[in-house]
Design goal:
Layout (H helix, E strand, L loop, with lengths): L5 H11 L1 E3 L20 E3 L12 E2 L6 E4 L4 E2 L4 E2 L18 H8 L16 E3 L4 E2 L4 E2 L4 E2 L4 E2 L4 E2 L7 E4 L4 E5 L3 H10 L17 H11 L13 H5 L4
Parallel strand pairs: 1-2, 3-5, 4-7, 5-8, 6-9, 7-10, 8-11, 9-12, 11-13
Antiparallel strand pairs: 13-14
Length: 237
Amino acid sequence: MRHLSQAEFSHLYDTYRIRFYPRVQKGQALSGEDVAFEPMCQHPQEGFLPLGAFSYSQSFIEGLSHVGRYCSIGRGVHRLGVDHPADWVSTSPMFYKRRHYQRYARDDSPMPRSFDNTPAPINIGNDVWIADNAALKGGITIHDGAIIGYGAVVTKDVAPYTIVGGIPAKKIRDRFDMDIADALQASEWWRYDARDLSDLSMENPRAFLKEFEMRKPGLQPLPEHRHPLQHYLENSS
């Protein structure tokens, strides 16, 4: 956990465009100081996430391994809880967690069995939108361009440019026709600075692709440099 001074908050924003929303309360400690992220991103008030440039999250989600660029993550998004052994006689951790057994049974005997329910990390691609209150199972990958509906419970990987929703989450529809989705993914437009893209036809994917391909030879990709907090504070006064 890390406390930041007002000068450090100002340095992060003024120099690197790293900000927080909702606003961090005075004296509040931040989690994730060892997490690597890009500049030009917005973290939740609880701490740092592995965000790519131009991404934001209003939720502090445990177990994220990677979030790409241009992602939008709403409020109340969280990782699902740990698994329990559904095919055992009992699902209770009393029979596979030594600390539970010792604490409540008052028995220091060795635990004769184990069950590994450590959640696997969650990976999120580029240009992903996750609406409020979605729940994500550990180990899934949400691929580029996908949309997760409000309150969805996502237990499986989500394909590129697919819209899913419901409990459990199921495919609602493709976001675009296949040729458009394939072309957008192949273009890797998210490798570029928003300032190089803002005047293109974002509201018309086919027109955007034509314009982007014409402009692309003259553009330089925005290098992806992810660093933990301390790197960004090194030059702070």
